[in-house]
Amino acid sequence: MFAHKLMRPLGVLFLLLALILAGSVSALAAESDPIEFTIQVSPESLTEPGEVKVSLRVANTGTEDMIDPVTLYDPAGKLVGSFGDGGSYLLSAGAFRTWEGTWNVTQEELDAGEFSYTLHYHLTGDDGELVELKRQAVARVNFTGERVKLTITRSISPEVVRSGSTATVVYELYNSGNVDLKDIRVKENISKNAQTVKELAAGEKQTLTFTSKMGNADLASSASITYKAANGTKTYTEKVEEQTITKAQPNLKIELSSPSAGVNIGEAAKLVITFTNAGNVSYSNVTVKDEKKGEILTNLSIPAGATVVEEKEFILMEPTTFKVTATLPDNTGETQSLNAANELTIGVFDPEKTLLLTLNLTCEQETIHQVPADVRFHLTVTNNSNIKAEKIAIYHGDTFIYTISALEPGASMTLTRDAKISQAGKFRFTAQVTDSLQNNVSFESNTLQIAYAQITPAPTQVPVVTVAPPAQVTVAPVEPVLTQAKDVLLTVASVLGVLFAAAFVLFVASTAARLQKKSRSKAAYDHLELAERRDYTEPADEDEDDDDDEDEEREERDELHELPVLPHEKIIRTVVKNEAEEVAPASDDMPASDWEGGYRVSRVEPKEEKAAEEEIKVPESLKAEAAKEEGAPAEEKPAEEEAPRRRRSARRAQRTEDGE
Question: Which of 39, 63, 268, 471 can bridge 137 by disulfide, Cβ–Cβ 3.0-4.6 Å?
Fold first, then answer.
């Protein structure tokens, strides 16, 4: 509410400034504006709302043509399209433009007694920029008929109402028409009874007051007002909107405080008064008085919901206790008194009787080499005041250490305490004592820093070498489970190592044997291919026949060229011949085989070189088989062609036998 009251004069001030500024701008524009705008209406008087004829004239009285056209708007703010080209017209220097039309005058315009047309256009300013200007042509219209009009103003007091107090609503009725009114009836919501004004002449005012007791809830004010013209029967009705009448809920608290508990004699002490208004009641012209100092604050304002802090200084020569009472006129229309929630005592000290203690803290070691560590503190307490200090309590932080019963002025006392500290850091002790004014005073010692550092090993001397007697070393017992596991792992590792070594030796031996056998095989002159099985009912593989043919061709060439026989060939032929002599003569009945399903066939060669040309006795079955391979009967071939073929068949049989 205080802010609302403050805004009203500020709003009026800003409005006046705006009007003055607008007037100044208009005056400056009028001095340099070449546009003239005039209006005439007919008729100039009306008894009721109706149509009038309007004549407008716009002229450019300057010496320069207009850059932009002028635009015409009617009293309702609409563009007049019949003026110029779509409502706009470009005026050259000395030219003018007229327009005629009609306008329906409303009752509001009749009540105001005027209406106006507006012209919009642009002019070039001194800085070369275009400036938009507006010019109005005002037409006066007199209302000569009856105007029935009642103006109603409502006011509520107080602004908030305490429970059980009276709320008042006042209506001011003003006849703003030109005829007398009658039977004015006002029905207010907060009252059960309506009030009536029988007659109210034109230009007169009358007030009606309604009251109601405030209960435990807010009230709502609204009204319905009816009236008639003195010479008419028509009933006019006006409505007044609802407004809440608020129930007062005061909640103000006053507290006293001071930045210091005491001052020296003759010094200024500061008293701080805090008003906390948590209610909806505002206070103004508040006065604050102290029981001993009298009136200390005046003309205070405490708005609803605000907190106000006031300070006052006093020169004190003795200890003083403040007891404050505030007188509080409020916006409920009442004045209340309220005491501060607390009393405040500010002490005054005599320098000659002021306690002053000094505490000096030392430690036998300022560096520790392990944590926790044992240290010894020495605290010296000295009474530097002129009075005796009694019951001095010594603390380390919040831990009580010791109480010194008394210290005479100038006396000292040293306390020694052994302590176990958990870490390095800063340490400080506090002394608390009650002074002559029964104030609890604290004094702190100096801050002692204890650091942590590792021990630096001392330099070692070169020792004299002395042969030490043999020392018996006892091996620490090992857990049985670990020992057993270790033994098992060692055994397994040993066995695996032996097996690996044996396998490696066998591998080397087998590799050497294979290499030796391979070298002997390569050194031999004749290499005989061995087959696992020889089947004479199936034709031989092409590769195998090719190899045999090559060997046979080589032998035939050797025989034709009468090459010398190598020693190993002689041995092989001798062995074959001996075996061939042991074979029985061929007959139709084949001898029994040494193996199931097979026959033993041996290659026979002569002991001497000429025996190669002789016929080798071959069984008839082999001859038949050879004849089948050649595609002709065996008996029809000549002996010289049959002998090499028989030898080849014998060699195949011998290889088959050796392979089996």
Answer: 39
User: Which runs of consecutive H residues, i.e. helices, occur in 245-344?
Assistant: none
Q: What is the pTM of this model?
A: 0.45
Three-state SS letters, 404-457: EEEECCCCEEEEEEEEEECCCEEECCEEEEECCCCCEEEEECCCEEEEECCCCC
Per-residue buried b or exposed e for 39-53, using 16+ beta carbons within 10 Å of the residue's own CB: bebeeeebeeeeebe
Least Cα distance to 170 among 207, 221, 213, 219 occurs for: 207
Q: Token pair of 633, please?
A: 């009967």
**Are the CB atoms for 387 and 418 separated by under 8 Å?**
no
385, containing H or E segment: none
Q: Which two structure tokens, joined as six digits, stand for 293?
A: 């100092």
Cα–Cα separations (whole angstroms), residue 434 to 268, 281, 357, 385, 386:
23, 45, 12, 13, 15
Question: Per residue in 95-132, pLDDT tens?
Answer: 999 999 999 999 889 888 899 999 999 988 778 788 89
Chain segment 582-641, per-residue pLDDT in tens: 444 444 444 444 444 444 444 444 444 444 444 445 455 555 555 555 454 444 445 555
If one counts every other C-beta atom within 10 angstroms of the C-beta of residue 450, the result is 18
Distance CA 243, CA 433 (A): 64
Q: What is the C-alpha separation between 244 and 448, in angstroms, rounded?
A: 69
Residue 195 token pair: 């009030």
| Cβ contacts of 460 within 8 Å, gap of 6 or more | none
Per-residue burial over 84-93, b if 16 or more Cβ lie within 10 Å, else e, is: beebbbbbee
Rg (CA), the chain: 70
Both tokens assigned to 637? 């071939």
